[in-house]
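Q: Could you fold this chain for me?
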Amino acid sequence: MSGAFNNVSLTLTQGANEQDVIDRLDDILKDYGGIGAYARKDQLSNRFLSEELKQQKTIATIFPIIFFGVAAFLLTLVAIPLGLLLGYGLCAFMAFQFDTDLYRIPLVLGINVYAFAALVVIASSIISAIMIWRNLAHLDMVAVLKTKE
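A: Sure. Below is the predicted structure, expressed as structure tokens.
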């Protein structure tokens, strides 16, 4: 059989009415055994691809939030004790350097100083995490993955 075909795929121009094209195509092909045209939204493969893209979008939004949240938490967990230790060392060094024969500066650091320093680190990490998240939320992940470095 020459010139026979089993499938027809059409691309509609912008502004074309999908249902009118389907009705006209059904009228043309009914004499040749056409069993009915249907839109892309009704195709099974389109459903699979649409669901896969929805799943990828969910993964692209949830995983970065979890990753950056854990990273910020661990960084803060490491930064607070290290910052307190370095801060104490810097204060002790400055107090030692300011000592002279005429006066001496005592090193007095209360728990409120350490609490304030830890609060500043926690607030800074939360603010920076929110800023990073807002910047990432506005990115089109498909466009980012397509760009060349």
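A (continued): The chain has a mean pLDDT of 85.
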